[in-house]
Amino acid sequence: MTGTPVTDAQATDSPAPEAPVLEISGLEVAYRAADGSTRPAVRGVDLRVGAGEVVALVGESGSGKSTTAHAALHLLPRGGTVTAGRLRLDGRDLSDLTAKEWQAVRGRHVGLVPQDPTVSLNPVVRVGDQVAEVLVIHGLARRADARVRAVELLRQAGVDDPAGRARQYPHQLSGGLRQRVLIAIAIAARPRLVVADEPTSALDVTVQRRILDHLDSLVRETGTAVLLITHDLGVAADRADRILVLQDGVIVEEGAATRVLADPQHPYTRRLIAAAPSLASSRLVIGDDRGPTTDVERPEAPSAAEGTASPVLALDRVRKEFALPRGAERRTLVAVDDVSLAVGRGRTYALVGESGSGKSTTARLALRLEHPTAGRVVFRGQDITAARGRELRALRRGFQVVYQSPYASLDPRFTVEQIVAEPLRAYGVGDRAERADRARALIEDVALPADVLRRGPRELSGGQRQRVAIARALALQPDLVVLDEPVSALDVSVQAQILELLVRLQAEHGLAYLFISHDLAVVRQVADQVGVMSRGRLVESGAAEQILLDPQEDYTRELVAAIPGRRAVQRLETA
Amino acid sequence: MTRYVLRRAGQGLFVLWAAFTVAFFVLYLLPSDPAALVASGGGEVSQVDPAQLAALRAEYGLDRPILVQYGDALLGVLTGDFGDSYVSGAPATTLVAQALPETLKLTGAALAVAVAGGTAVAVASVFPRARFLRQALAVLPPLGVALPTFFVGLVLLQWFSFRVPVFPAIGNEGAISLVLPTITLAVPAGAQLAQVLSRSLRGTLGEPYVETAWAKGASRTRVHLAHALRNAAIPAFTVLGVMVGGLLGGAVVTETVFSRVGLGRLTVQSVNQQDAPVVLAIVAFSALVFVVVTLVVDLVYPLLDPRIELRTPRGASRRAAPQRATAVNA
């Protein structure tokens, strides 16, 4: 707690404009691997954040953006060390502070809004006490007084009923509320700088928007500087005054947000902009990565009656109830309520909604992994609601699934060839040699090199793994593929590649897709039909353009408005 | 809550009954004649008059069918009567009650030392900044678990009673006689606790909420004790429950090594002499300790971790989403 040049007076008054709040120059960070070798993660980064300014650091995973952010708090993960560079906060050089001196800076002068609100609060401490702790640590209030001020801070962070919430534990709050608690923690000591590390990636879009709006107004009121870390150029463009694009630990482009977006200079920035789903505005078409929406080139594009004439999959007023534990207010939870939809051959039906809206349960009903409480599931014209045992197993050849996480959905002990050939083995298709041939062809079909067949999934990147999962889903030549958030776990540029692959495969094989997503920006790129789910009900459905351009329901309008990047795009268009 | 406790108490009664029953029939299967044991008074079986044996069998009810004996014994247990020792003739419960206080002193002291020592070693193995220090301290718990109780006891005796006579080698005289047995008993238990706790601490220190604590400007001590340790203590607490039972078992060896009067010694004696009523009383008592300790552990859990709720599982509630899904799949 020795030598603190940043005084309270300075913390509230805006300093001279030429002195940035945060100034990083020539920062280099390296990680030491287990074998003793070092790998540079950040290579000579310079950045300045002024008072009241929001600067976004954009890049993909491994670009060094999180490392840079953590270096600003001197909180590098184990094995990481700053090998060169200076770090100044309000003109004070922090580069040579001891661990103890850093304690007086962290939380007091630099606040952190961490990445995943669901795991960033101490599960066994009441949230009010977690906010109050910052004040107690820095001697800004005594314990009892800190509790009172914590309630006020929670209110400032946009928590409703702050006094009541303060006495709750993290698990009793939703993800959005927990992020607000974390924001209250970050701003508690009125720091000069807030580092926000992907503060909303784990949240639903509408929640994300409200929280970013709130953070915006909080920092603008107080003149706090914000370093915003994000992988999403859309979010950066919406929120930041300036954008820095980071690739492999080097800043490749830097400038005013509107300039970077409208006139990107570096090819990597262009690639990121092209890949950002939130900034693209039209549907993907085969043979072209992204062009204007023209359905003329789409093969076998049926007319308006598509999907209803002879749909591959039809859900007819399905309903799913789950029994709730005794003692709950209600006996059952209605997860899916009276949902009807139809997916035509070669078409994509996107089911959109936030967490808990029932979209995944609907997908599980379609896959017959759940049995509907009421309603019918019709596959290729046949009622399969009551199918079971051997009959259901035979039907399963026709509908396959690709899950969200390619990290969890592939058996780490199998080789890629075994993974892709497993459905063939399960259904006794061909002999060993034929299955190997088929696996090779499938891997080629998803544009992976043949040598991955012998490797394990652990040796592959997330995008490559998802390609393997897609190849597996196609092994039995299904008519319908259910895609449950297939790109949500991937980096934006990889997302774009996977979406392109899906669109190409659909055209080549005439696949019907039931596409589950919380992200309207992604849906916009692939869907023919869109159904919007909220609280188990289908609140609006119809052709994709119609839903996205002219939403009728308030809920849909809110979802559309929450797509990050829209504000920036509109700003560009009106400029 | 009341429902929960009642249900758990019911389960506990079942466990007691099962332990008693298994022990009863195992003892019955032993190839020995209790009447001969009674007649010889626990000493070497000498020639005994067959008529006298028959009289003894009739007196102890040993001539009846096994199931009748079992039913009789069970009824006795319900009234707290385990029968009289074949060897000394005193009621089995009295013998247990006499031995108990010394063992309680020993195990209680060992438990306290094990918890304090285990926690200290676990925290010490993650707290220091110096890597070599953490690694050196991390070796202690597995070492402690690996050392057999009798070995620790003998080494302690050798050094602190014989070479440097600080502590008495045997007996129950005063608190000073408790020191060596307590350490002997506490070493494996504390090591086991330290092992689980330090692993759990290393896990929690990597959790994002610990990073949040660092980002608040919390000191090293605060991060480790107020944030990491509280969370890491939850899995370690489970070990504590099992440990209490383990201490009773450890008391057998420790009391033998240090020639202390207590439940452990009584156990060894009565098993050697096949003194069935006493053995049954000890088995029932150990089972009771286990049942009570597990219940207490489970009741304390929600105080440590607010995410845990005590709830009576019911068929209906079990059929929540995931279970239901697998049922349909299968």
Automatic annotation (TrEMBL), chain A:
Q: Region (Disordered) spans which residues? A: 286-309
Q: Which residues form the ABC transporter domain?
A: 24-273, 313-560
Listed Basic and acidic residues bias regions: 286-300
Task: Quote the Pfam families the UniProt record gives.
Answer: ABC_tran (PF00005), oligo_HPY (PF08352)
Positions in coiled-coil regions: none
Q: SMART domains, alphabetically?
A: AAA
What are its GO biological-process terms? Answer: peptide transport; transmembrane transport
Q: Which UniProt keywords apply?
A: ATP-binding, Nucleotide-binding, Transport
Q: Which GO terms describe its molecular function?
A: ATP binding; ATP hydrolysis activity
What InterPro entries does the record tag this protein with?
AAA+_ATPase, ABC_transp_ATP-bind, ABC_transporter-like_ATP-bd, ABC_transporter-like_CS, Oligopep_ABC_C, P-loop_NTPase
Family according to the record: Belongs to the ABC transporter superfamily.
> Under what name is this protein listed?
Peptide/nickel transport system ATP-binding protein
Which organism's genome codes for this protein? Krasilnikoviella flava
| Lineage per the UniProt record | Bacteria, Bacillati, Actinomycetota, Actinomycetes, Micrococcales
Automatic annotation (TrEMBL), chain B:
How does this protein lie in the membrane? Multi-pass membrane protein
Entry-linked Pfam families: BPD_transp_1, BPD_transp_1_N
Q: Does the UniProt entry include the keyword Hydrolase? A: no
Q: Which InterPro entries match?
A: BPD_transp_1_N, MetI-like, MetI-like_sf
Q: What is its main location?
A: membrane
Give an example GO biological process.
transmembrane transport
Query: Which Gene3D superfamilies does the record cross-reference, listed alphabetically?
Result: MetI-like (1.10.3720.10)
Keyword Transmembrane on entry: yes
Give every ABC transmembrane type-1 domain span: 100-301
Q: Where are the transmembrane segments?
A: 12-30, 106-127, 139-162, 174-194, 232-258, 278-304
Q: Where in or outside the cell is it found?
A: Cell membrane
Which GO terms of the cellular component aspect does the record hold?
Answer: plasma membrane
Keywords, sorted A to Z: Cell membrane, Membrane, Transmembrane, Transmembrane helix, Transport
Q: Which PROSITE patterns match?
A: ABC_TM1
UniProt lists the family membership as follows: Belongs to the binding-protein-dependent transport system permease family.
What this protein is called in its record is Peptide/nickel transport system permease protein
Q: Which organism is it from?
A: Krasilnikoviella flava
